[in-house]
Amino acid sequence: MPRLRSDFFVSAHLRRLNDAGIPAVLRRRGAAEAGAIFAKVDRLDGSADLYGPAPQALFTEADSGDRLFARLLAQVSPLDAEERLAKEVRFDPDLWVIEIDDREGRHCLDLAE
């Protein structure tokens, strides 16, 4: 099964967060068809989490059309999360960034186990 385009996924994910009452905004627009998607979760207590695409090795055949994410940074300072995002942008300028503000750290992403 083909994977959903990045622009459709981000739009649907922002709507899903909004429906759940989780404030989120699109901070950076990437390549519409296949740009990598990152999500920064600001916990509003001086800490943040950063999620990005899961490594392909974590995918199974059942996941072939899904987007899976992995936690890249956990409860670091927002500045540390921004530094990591800046490195990712230098590596891949076509990536997307979703910014989420949630004290509980909710993000509604499917995580690779």
The main pleated sheet reads as:
5 strands, mixed
Which second-level CATH architecture applies? 3-Layer(aba) Sandwich
Topology-level CATH name = hypothetical protein tt1805
Identify the quaternary structure here: single chain
User: What share of the residues lie within helices?
Assistant: 10-25%
Give a written overview of the molecule.
A hairpin with a 5-residue loop joins β2 and β3 (48-53). The chain has helices spanning 6-19, 78-91; strands at 24-28, 37-42, 48-53, 69-76, 96-101. The protein is of the alpha+beta class. The mean pLDDT is 91. The protein has one domain (6-101): Protein of unknown function (DUF1491) (hypothetical protein tt1805), CATH 3.40.1530.
Topology of helices and strands:
Blueprint: H1 6-19, E1 24-28, E2 37-42, E3 48-53, E4 69-76, H2 78-91, E5 96-101
Parallel strand pairs: 2-5
Antiparallel strand pairs: 1-5, 2-3, 3-4
Q: What descriptive keywords fit this protein?
A:
DUF1491, single chain, hypothetical protein tt1805, 5 strands, 5-stranded mixed sheet, 113 residues
